[in-house]
Specification:
The complex is a heterodimer of chains A (103) and B (206). With 103 residues, chain A is mostly helical. Chain A folds into two domains: 65 residues; 36 residues, no CATH class. In chain A, 75% of the residues lie in helices and 0% in strands. The termini of chain A are far apart. The relative contact order of chain A is 0.07. The model of chain B has no long low-confidence stretch (mean pLDDT 91). The relative contact order of chain B is 0.15. Chain B is an all-alpha fold and 206 residues long. Classes of the chains: A mainly alpha (103), B mainly alpha (206). At the A-B interface, helix 1, helix 2, helix 3, helix 4 and helix 5 of A face helix 2, helix 3 and helix 6 of B.
């Protein structure tokens, strides 16, 4: 019960982050209807998704308030795995344009 | 290291006393699960991106964003209601905490029902795992596997929320258990932020 009495509420911050995330999700839908090429659309949507994800991880999942060691552990291990998966993209372009049966 | 070392203050005593990163074991286990599950979803989405990039006649079957926009709104809002539940639990207001957790579970259930309705609509238009009327048959397999994996996570999350919520109400679990379940729920929300642009918005038929 002592813990409950000591607890500082973060409801105001949650609402601010929630509305930011709603706005970013809305921006993704705006980008989907904008008149730009596919590569640019993909880049803009991914940037918005990453910003949204960072907000969710830091403030909804409370990683910002956790031990800094855990923050770095989660960030480094996740980013390493995500980057390691990107090595195959050049091959997908080769399949699309470089192989004899592509066109 | 023997059990005696730990309990009797031998040379290895103290090694098990401090949890990693000063995080409770259950929470650490959830973070490790989330990191592993991130790799699973990332592998699926990268494979999807590879296929989409390398396939010339990739279908763009979506003509309306209404359904996916509503689903996104519900999932994001359910993350907020989960936080309100955890906040109520930490302030000791058990009844309010359970109410918010059950509202979160209801949001998840609604999301799942909308998702299933969308699937039924697409299946009705002739889309299966192996073929569809719009282009390469790979689309159906990619779409159903990614959204299906996410839907499975949402369904498991709804069950977990109800079970943990009821056990918290009964006094078997505490606010920390709710917070750990919340971590999973926010992760499910986080994954959806990448599924929406990649699987839906980039496949809008203009």
């Amino acid at each position: 019960m002592a813990m409950a009495e000591e607890h500082k509420t973060h409801v105001g911050k949650y609402f601010v982050v929630y509305f930011c995330m709603l706005a970013i999700a809305g921006l993704q839908f705006v980008v989907a209807y904008s008149n730009i090429d596919g590569a640019q659309m993909f880049t803009r949507m991914m940037i918005l998704a990453v910003v949204e994800a960072v907000l969710a991880i830091l403030f909804f999942m409370h990683l910002w308030m956790e031990n800094r060691g855990l923050l770095w552990f989660v960030a480094i291990s996740t980013i390493f795995v995500l980057l390691a998966m990107q090595y195959g993209w050049t091959d997908s372009f080769r399949l699309a344009h470089g192989v004899p049966w592509a066109n | 290291m023997s059990h005696a070392d730990v309990t009797l203050g031998g040379p290895s005593a103290g090694l098990t006393e401090r949890p990693a990163f000063s995080v409770p074991a259950k929470k650490m286990a959830m973070w490790l699960f989330i990191i592993a599950d991130t790799a699973t979803f990332a592998a699926c989405l990268v494979a999807y991106g590879f296929l989409r990039n390398a396939t010339p006649n990739w279908p763009r079957p979506f003509h309306s964003i209404t359904n996916v926009a509503i689903m996104t709104f519900i999932l994001l809002t359910s993350s907020l209601t989960m936080l309100l539940g955890i906040d109520a639990a930490k302030t000791g207001d058990k009844a309010r905490a359970v109410r918010w957790v059950m509202i979160t579970a209801a949001g998840g259930l609604l999301f799942a029902l909308l998702h299933i309705r969308e699937w039924i609509g697409l299946i009705g238009e002739g889309m299966t795992l192996l073929k569809n009327p719009w282009g390469t048959g790979l689309f159906g397999a990619a779409f159903f596997s990614i959204t299906g994996l996410h839907l499975l996570h949402v369904s498991c999350g709804v069950i977990a929320l109800v079970v943990v919520g009821l056990r918290y109400q009964g006094g078997r679990y505490n606010a920390d258990d709710l917070e750990i379940t919340g971590l999973y729920w926010h992760f499910v929300d986080l994954v959806w932020m990448f599924v929406v642009p990649l699987v839906y918005l980039l496949n809008l038929g203009h």
